Amino acid sequence: MTSELIILPVEKIQTETNKQIKQRKNEYGLYVSLNKPHESLESSLKKENINTQRLFFIDCVSTEQTQDKIVIHPTETETLSTAINYFLKNIPGKKYLIIDTLSTLLIYNNENKVARLIKEITEQNTKDTEIIALSPKTKGEELLNKIFNFFDEVKK
Amino acid sequence: MTFLLITIVHAQEYVSSNIDLTIPENYKKINTGEELLTSIKLLNLASTGRIDVILQFQITNPSNEIIYTKQETVAIETQANFVRTFKIPKDSEPGKYVLHAKMILPNEREVTTKESFHVENKKQKITQIIAITTTLLILTILLIINSKKHLKNYKLKRRIKRIIKNKITQNKEK
């Protein structure tokens, strides 16, 4: 398993996310969306000619839970960690995890809780998995300072 | 001959004088702060007239420490029956207590007896019951919360498994 943290200005995050998905078009991916609801995210990805057939989504924005999608409120970090872990363990073959705008979690949780979640995710012993987390610079960069060490690589 | 007669008289006195202590069944177990009721029977069959005897009472706690002493003089002819109560202090430790009674005859001969009883701390018992009940209640609540969490996780995992299976099947069909 490899992990990468990409720190970008907020306006460049979606472009970078699309680029990361496109680079792995033959792999299954798990997209943890903290910015857009599942439906609008999927349609915006399709507009960018991204095949969403190989993407699974965890929607942290919608409020309505339905049978065919996983909706987890950002405050439920334990459930989020369980769901990510279970997805990655059960998706066959090479796969990746994309978490857009990590900093959004800070709106709902304190830094330590978010850092604990990131630690749990990056420490998961799942083979053939790449973790890509994107985040704009946070105020005072306290969160980023706490989570730098959990990633194999940090790109600024 | 005289010496033998005196010995026989003393032996008769020894056999005939006695103290009998009875704690009624419903007082065998009492709570701290309550009164212990006892029935006392003194026998002086050898004596032809009224005599004064000294009665000494002592109560010892489970650690064998004396927590109560009392002395009184009682007049008996051949037999005396009476009731005595003893207050057990509120701060007494629970356990087995012993009431010792000693009768001292005019000739300074002593006759002793003892009877045991149990002291319980009602307050401590109630506190223990409350503590056990509270612990059980907390454990039950924690168990329910834990079960709910497990059930939630189980449902989530089942849905994830189904979503993965559906998507992979769809992709294979294409």
Write structural notes for this entry:
The complex is a heterodimer of chains A (156) and B (174). Chain A is of the alpha/beta class and 156 residues long. Helices cover 37% and strands 22% of the residues of chain A. Chain A is built from six helices and seven strands, in the order E-H-E-H-E-E-H-E-H-H-E-H-E. Chain A has helices at 13-23, 38-47, 77-90, 105-108, 111-122, 142-147, and strands spanning 2-7, 28-33, 55-59, 70-71, 95-99, 129-135, 153-155. Chain A has a seven-stranded parallel beta sheet, sandwiched between helices. In chain A, helix 3 (77-90) runs parallel beside helix 5. In chain B, a hairpin with a 5-residue loop joins strand 4 (51-60) and strand 5 (66-76). Chain B has helices at residues 2-16, 122-173; strands at residues 17-22, 29-31, 35-44, 51-60, 66-76, 79-87, 95-104, 110-120. Chain B is α+β, with helices and mostly antiparallel strands and 174 residues long. Chain B is rod-shaped and about 125 Å long. In chain B, the strands form two sheets. In chain B, strands 2-8-7-4-5 form a five-stranded mixed beta sheet. In chain B, strands 1-3-6 form a three-stranded antiparallel beta sheet. Chain A binds chain B through residues 53-54, 56, 67-70, 79, 82-83, 86-87, 90-92, and chain B through 152-153, 156-157, 159-161, 163-164, 166-168, 170-171, 174.
